[in-house]
Structures are given as structure tokens and as C-alpha cells.
Specification:
two-stranded antiparallel ribbon; 14-stranded antiparallel sheet; mainly beta
Amino acid sequence: IRDETLRWGGKVGNADVRFSYHALGDEGFQHAFYADWTDPHDSRQSKLFDLKVDFALSNQDNVQVTLTHAKDVSQFGRPDRPTTDPFRDLKQDSTSLGVQWRRVVNADEELKVLYAYTEDRASSPYSRVANFYNINTASTYNFDMNVDPGGKSTVTELEFQYLISPFDKTRFMFGGAVKTLGLYSPDQFSTTDWKRRDAYRMFGNVELRPAKDWLFNFGASLENDSLTGLHFDPRASISYHLTKEQTVRLAASRAHRTPSLYEYMGRVEFKATGTTSPIDLKYLGQGVESERLDTLEVGYLAELKAARASFELRGFIEKIPNRIQILPLSLPPSSPDDAE
């Protein structure tokens, strides 16, 4: 096992710079027993580079730039299953860039604009032997498959937030965001075409403190997804301070999780190497609606400074009436299993 960490922070001109590098690596187990003593092929090497730069444009304006790159190589496979689970390396890397501009108008007013771009890649090509049972001939067939579950994805997001306190004991925040996602994975979609989705979101929150011991929060998000349509997600909470160190809270919220592109339109086909016609269909996404999560919770928080301790108790009910699940799909008796 060999792990490395390097950090540096300081000033470069009028900019505050922080740099970090992490490397985690191991050679895996050298010996394992699979009918005989052998190398199990299970090492892992990962590296992470992170850079953060903060610099002031003026007394009111600040810009923050972040750059991150991560890389990982993991070994998989079984020594005793060379045809169905052969030795292979899974190579992954991720690069992200973020830029945030923050303008402080005054103590009660602030504006933020954020841009983020992330690119992920994965690759793990290998060949395996697959089994297929044909009910029409009552026979089992073996065929070679070229497999690479990897691919490439890109995410671009632009967001703004505006915070203002127009009245005493009141704060208001609102904003909007645009997000674009692209995904390329021939094995997961059985096509070399890029799959894309766009999302547009508006959100806001109002914080009210009508009395010393009471705090109210009311927020909502409205999002339009190019695949699943419009979603409205409200949230409300009430907090009451029993003492300076003890608070009880009641909250209710609704949220949606949009399905991934794979869940929504994935298509995994089994094909013999060198052929184009599918022999079997392993996974088929036929368009699903977003999962909905309804939550009701009550909580108690105690910050016991004299005892240098804190205590939190939370009771909640969460319901997902339409959880996404992968289910087997039976073909009609008239359909041969080896048909598309």
C-alpha cells in the first residue's frame, strides 16, 4: 500500500491559492486460492489533483476558480472464470472546472453567478463468453461478446443566486439554473449516438423571524426537464427555540428525483462478436416518470456548550409512491427469445 498527500496554500499576488494532490494505491492481494494459488488481479491506483484560487476584483467583487482532476485504475476479474469474468482494467477519469463570481452589495444584499463544467470518462473493454437458452430448440448456445461498459459524459451548468434582506427579521433568496447533460455509451444504449437532456430550474426561499424564538422558512423549486417534464417541489419548516441552546423543528417537503438517462432510455443488447443483430435484450428503458419523495419530520437539537456536547433527535416519515425498479419483462409465447 502506498498513499501520498501533498498540500500547499499561500498568496500569489492578490490571489489566495490552495493546491492539493492525493494518491492512493495498492497492489492488491498477491496470492489467493482459486483451485490453485494465483494472483487475483485486484489492485487499485487512484490520483486526485485539486486547485482553488480566490481573488478580489474590488471591495465588493470576488471570483473563485476551482479545477479538479481525478483518475482511477481498478483491476477486476476472476482467475477461475477466464471466459465469463476475465481479467480486465477499469480506467476512469473525471475533470471539472468551476467559476463563481460573488458581489456583496451591502450587508443585506448579495449576488452569485456560478458556472460549472464536468467531463467523465470510463473504459473497460474485454471479451467474454455468454450463454443463451433458446426455448424453441431447447438448446443452450455459447457465443463470444465484446464488452465495454464505459463511455463519456459531459455536464454544463449555469446558475445565479440573489440574496436580500428587505425588512428586519426577513431574508429572501431566489435564483435560476440551466443544466445540460450529454452521455455517450454504446454498450448502455446500443447506439453510437449521444443522448442528451436539458433542465431549467427556478428556486426561492423566504426566512421570517416574527418573534425572538420563532423561525419560519418557506421555499420552492420549479424545474422543467426535457425528458420528464415539469416538477414543483415545496418545502416549509417551523423552528422554536425552547432556550438559547435547545430548538425543536417541524418540517414538510416534497422532492423529485429525475431518472438517469440509462433508467429512462437505456438499451443493453447481447450480440455475438462480429455481428450486428441482437441475440438477447438484457435491459430496456421505456421512459419512466420521476420518483417523488414526500417527507414529514420533527426534530430536537440541543447544543450543550457547558458540557461540550450536542444532541439531536429526529423522527420522520418518508414516502416514495413511485419508486423506480428494474423488473423482468416476459415475452409472449409466440416470440422467440433470440428475436430483437
